[in-house]
Design a protein that fits this description.
- The chain is built from 34 helices and 17 strands.
- The protein has 5 domains: 7-202, Rossmann fold (3-Layer(aba) Sandwich), CATH 3.40.50; 210-401, 3-Layer(aba) Sandwich (Rossmann fold), CATH 3.40.50; 407-508, Winged helix-like DNA-binding domain superfamily/Winged helix DNA-binding domain (Arc Repressor Mutant, subunit A), CATH 1.10.10.10; 533-614, Orthogonal Bundle (DNA polymerase, domain 1); 621-726, Arc Repressor Mutant, subunit A, CATH 1.10.10.1390.
- The protein starts with 6 loop residues before the first helix and ends with a helix.
- Helix content is 49%, strand content 11%.
- Strand 5 (137-142), helix 8 and strand 6 form a beta-alpha-beta unit.
Length: 727
C-alpha cells in the first residue's frame, strides 16, 4: 500500500464513500495482497471499484481489458471525475489518432496513469505489446469476463487469447469480473485465464427491486407506447435483436411523441457516442438498442428495460434487465415473448459447427423454460445461477402477482410421444400437430399419414395447445429437436421411460405464446376483446343487428380485432374511428355513425378516461406499399408480377390486399380472378361467404374442399366478396 491510510480512508479520499458495499472490501484486499481474484457481482453491485481503488493505491499501472469503446470512455470519464488530473486514466483503442495514442503512451511511461483501458484487439498489436513490456503493471483486470466463455452470452473469440498475451507482456495478478456467470461459465473463465487458484467473491444474484414480467408478443408496439406514456418522463432501454428493428421501433416511438434515440453497431462511432451521451444527460428518455448498448453504462435511474425480442440466453437477459433500478429504486423488466422468435433464433444457428449449435440450443431451451414457467421467476433465475431463493412467492413478478393455472397432461404427453414414434421420428412439430388434430393437409395426405392410428387422436385440442405440449415437453427433457435435421422431433431416453410408465405431467393452462400475430398491424388475439369486455360485447350486438338489417355477414362491417381495438381506444367521432385497426375512411363513413354514438354514450355514462393520446401512429412507408398495390391493381397488373416487383411472397401480397379491403377501400381484382376461376366456381365460393357468419379461410376450405379450391383462390374470392358487399 502506498500510504498508511486505512482502506476505508482510501475509499473516502478517492471516491467520497464512507463504507464498502457487500464483499467489496474483502475482494479489494485480495487484489492488494497480489492474489488472482474472480469477482461475480450483479450489475449495480459495485464491481468497478474492486479494481479502481487498488489501481489508485498500488504502484504501477493497472491494465483493464474491456470489450467496448463506449464502455471504456464511460469508465475513463468517471475516473477523471474523481481525480484532479485527467492523466489518471486513459484508453488505448482504434478510435484514437496517432498523436493522441502517443500522448497516452507518454503519460503511462511517466507513471501518471493508474488505469489504462484496452480492447483485446488492441492488446494483440505488436507495437502495443512492445510498449506494455516496458511499463510497471500493477495487475490485469478483465472486465465483462463472461466474453471469454463459449457458454457465456457475449462470447468474443479474441478474449480467449488474453492468457498467452499476458505471458508475453509480463506476469502480474489477474482479476476477472463479470455480472453474470453460471458455474459452467465461471469454470471456463478461470481455466482459460489460468486462474483456477483465484480467490472467488460472489454476491447474491437477487435484485429484490426488479419486477419481472413476460408478455405474449401481440401488438408489441402498441403495448410499448402505452407503457411508456403511463411512465412518462422515466428513463428506459428497449432491446431488439436486429438493427433494422431498432431503427423501425425508434421511428415509430418518435412519431408518437416519445423522446427516443436508436443505438446499434451499424451506426458510425460519433453518432453512437452522441446518442449515448444524450441518454445519459437525459436529453432523451428512451434508448432503443441492440445488446451493443449498455455494457457498463452507469446510469442509476433507468426505470424500465423492455425486451422487444426474447434474448438468446438467460445470462443475456439477466445482464440486460440488470441495467434497471441500479440505485435500488423501481425497475420494471418487461419481455415480449413469442415462440416464433425462438424458432427464428434456432434457424440462425443452422450451418454453425454442431458443438456451437448444441450450446446455443441449450441456452435457448433454458430461456423458453423461464419464459413459459408458471412458478416464481426469481426462483428460476437464481437457480440458473446456482443460488437458492428461500421464498415461494417474491411478490414482484407476474407469476407471483397473477398466478397461472396448471392442468394434468399425462394422457396428452403419451399421445404426442406415440405419434412421434409412429412416424419414425422423421417430422417437424407442425406436421405432428396436423396428425394429432386430424388435419388433412397436402403433406399429411402425400405421406398417407391420415391412415395412421394416431391420426386425429388429439382432435380434442387445437394446434396451439399441441405446440405448448411440444415446448413444455422439450423443457421437461422428454423430446428434443434433431440438431442436424433442423426441427425434427425425437423422443429422448426420458421420453421412452415416460411411455413405459406414465406419470403426472403438469402443463401451464391457456397461456399462448404462439399466436399468429401480425406484428405490423397487430391486435388483440382474433375473436377476443383486448380491452373493455362490456363495451366489446355491446359493439358485437350492434354489429349483429346492423348485419341483419343490411343482409350482410357481420365480419363485412367490422372484424373482431377492430371491435377489440375500439374497446381499448374508445373512439367517439368518425375521425378517431379511422385510426382504429382495420377501419379506413370508407368503412368509417358507411358504418361508423352508430358505433361512435354507442361508444360516446358508454364513455359518458361510465365516466371513462380515454387513452386518446395513446393512439399509435404507424410509420408512413407501410401505407406507401398499400398505395403502390392499389395503383398496380388499377392498372390490372398480374398479382404474381406485383408480388415479384415488391419482393414479397404471393400470400403476403394477399394479406396486404385483405388489409386494404378490410379497412373499407373498394378495389376490383376481377381481371385476375377470371383467369384462375370459372364462373361456377366463383359463384359457389361467393355464395358460401354470403351464407356464413364465419369468415375463416380454414372453415371455408373444409366446407368447399381444399382439393377443388386451393386456399389462395378462396382468399381471392373473400377479398372480392368483402370489397363488393361491404365497400
Amino acid at each position: 500500500m502506498s500510504s498508511n491510510l486505512s482502506l476505508t480512508e482510501h475509499l473516502h479520499k478517492y471516491f467520497g464513500f464512507d463504507r464498502f458495499k457487500g464483499q467489496q472490501e474483502e475482494a479489494i484486499k485480495s487484489v492488494l495482497d497480489g492474489n488472482n481474484t474472480f469477482v461475480l457481482m450483479p450489475t449495480g453491485g459495485g464491481k468497478s471499484l474492486i479494481y479502481q481503488l487498488p489501481a489508485m493505491i498500488m504502484d504501477g499501472t493497472a491494465i483493464v481489458i474491456s470489450p467496448l469503446i463506449a464502455l471504456m470512455k464511460n469508465q475513463v470519464d468517471s475516473m477523471r471525475g474523481i481525480s484532479t488530473e485527467d492523466t489518471v486514466a486513459h484508453f488505448l483503442n482504434s478510435s484514437l489518432t496517432k498523436a493522441a495514442t502517443q500522448e497516452v503512451k507518454d503519460d503511462v511511461m511517466s507513471g501518471k496513469t493508474k488505469l489504462l483501458y484496452v480492447a483485446p484487439e488492441s492488446l494483440t498489436k505488436e507495437e502495443n505489446i512492445e510498449f506494455l513490456k516496458n511499463i510497471k503493471i500493477s495487475f490485469y483486470a478483465i472486465d465483462e469476463a463472461h466474453c471469454i466463455s463459449e457458454w457465456g452470452h457475449d462470447f468474443r473469440p479474441e478474449y480467449r487469447r488474453i492468457r498467452p498475451l499476458i505471458q508475453e507482456i509480463g506476469e502480474a495478478p489477474v482479476i476477472a469480473l463479470t455480472a453474470t456467470a453460471t458455474a459452467k461459465v465461471q469454470h471456463d473463465i478461470q481455466k482459460n485465464l489460468g486462474i483456477l487458484n483465484a480467490q472467488v467473491f460472489k454476491a447474491s444474484f437477487n435484485r429484490p427491486n426488479l419486477y419481472y414480467e413476460i408478455r405474449p408478443k401481440v401488438k408489441p408496439e402498441n403495448q410499448i407506447i402505452r407503457f411508456i406514456k403511463e411512465n412518462a418522463g422515466k428513463s428506459g432501454i428497449i432491446y431488439c435483436l436486429s438493427r433494422k428493428k431498432v431503427e423501425e421501433l425508434a421511428e415509430t416511438l418518435k412519431i408518437n411523441g416519445i423522446k427516443v434515440l436508436p443505438y446499434h453497431a451499424g451506426m458510425d462511432a460519433q453518432t453512437r457516442s452522441n446518442n449515448q451521451d444524450k441518454f445519459l444527460m437525459e436529453e432523451v428518455d428512451i434508448m432503443v438498442a441492440t445488446i451493443a448498448f449498455g455494457m457498463g453504462i452507469d446510469k442509476p435511474d433507468v426505470r424500465f428495460v423492455i425486451h422487444y425480442d426474447i434474448p438468446k440466453s438467460l445470462e443475456g437477459y439477466y445482464q440486460e434487465t440488470g441495467r434497471a433500478g441500479r440505485d435500488g429504486g423501481e425497475g420494471k423488466c418487461i419481455t415480449f415473448y413469442s415462440f416464433k422468435d425462438i424458432q427464428k433464433l434456432d434457424k440462425f444457428m443452422h450451418g454453425k459447427p454442431v458443438a456451437e449449435q448444441e450450446i446455443g440450443r441449450q441456452l435457448l431451451l433454458d430461456t423458453v423454460s423461464y419464459a413459459e414457467t408458471a412458478i416464481c421467476r426469481r426462483i428460476i433465475l437464481l437457480h440458473y445461477f446456482g443460488e437458492k431463493y428461500e421464498h415461494e412467492n417474491c411478490n414482484n413478478c407476474d407469476n407471483c402477482l397473477n398466478p397461472k393455472e396448471y392442468m394434468e397432461a399425462q394422457d396428452e404427453i403419451v399421445r404426442m410421444l406415440e405419434t412421434i414414434l409412429e412416424v419414425k421420428e422423421k417430422y417437424k412439430a407442425d406436421h405432428i400437430a396436423d396428425i394429432l388434430t386430424g388435419k388433412t393437409t397436402a403433406a399429411v395426405k402425400s405421406f398417407r399419414h391420415d391412415t395412421l392410428e394416431s391420426f386425429g387422436s388429439g382432435d380434442d385440442h387445437d394446434e396451439h395447445f399441441w405446440n405448448a405440449v411440444f415446448r413444455q415437453s422439450m423443457v421437461g427433457g422428454l423430446i428434443n429437436k434433431d440438431i442436424e435435421n433442423y426441427g425434427i422431433l425425437q423422443v429422448t431416453p426420458a421420453g421412452h421411460e415416460f411411455l413405459k410408465s406414465p406419470r403426472s405431467f403438469q402443463l401451464v393452462r391457456n397461456h399462448r405464446y404462439d399466436e399468429d400475430e401480425d406484428e405490423s398491424s397487430g391486435g388483440p388475439a382474433s375473436g377476443g376483446s383486448g380491452g373493455d369486455p362490456e363495451l366489446f360485447n355491446m359493439l358485437r350486438d350492434l354489429r349483429k343487428n346492423m348485419a341483419k338489417k343490411l343482409n350482410l355477414p357481420p365480419y363485412v362491417i367490422f372484424q373482431d380485432p377492430s371491435l377489440a381495438d375500439m374497446s381499448i381506444q374508445y373512439p367517439i367521432d368518425l375521425e378517431e374511428l379511422q385510426k382504429i385497426q382495420g377501419v379506413g375512411q370508407g368503412k368509417a363513413q358507411r358504418y361508423g355513425k352508430e358505433f361512435v354514438a354507442l361508444i360516446r354514450k358508454y364513455v359518458e355514462e361510465n365516466e371513462i378516461e380515454r387513452p386518446q393520446d395513446l393512439i399509435v401512429r404507424s410509420v408512413a412507408n407501410k401505407s406507401k406499399l398499400k398505395v403502390n398495390i392499389i395503383q398496380s391493381i388499377d392498372r390490372k397488373i398480374s398479382l404474381e408480377d406485383i408480388a415479384n416487383s415488391k419482393g414479397i411472397e404471393f400470400s403476403d401480397l394477399l394479406g396486404e390486399i385483405e388489409a386494404i379491403v378490410n379497412s373499407g377501400t373498394r378495389i376490383s381484382i376481377d381481371y385476375y380472378i377470371n383467369e384462375v376461376l370459372d364462373e361456377d366456381q366463383q359463384e359457389e365460393i361467393f355464395e358460401y361467404f354470403r351464407e356464413t357468419e364465419n369468415d375463416s379461410i380454414e372453415a371455408a376450405a373444409e366446407e368447399l374442399g381444399e382439393d377443388d379450391y386451393p386456399i389462395d383462390h378462396i382468399r381471392l374470392m373473400r377479398i372480392k366478396f368483402i370489397s363488393d358487399m361491404g365497400n
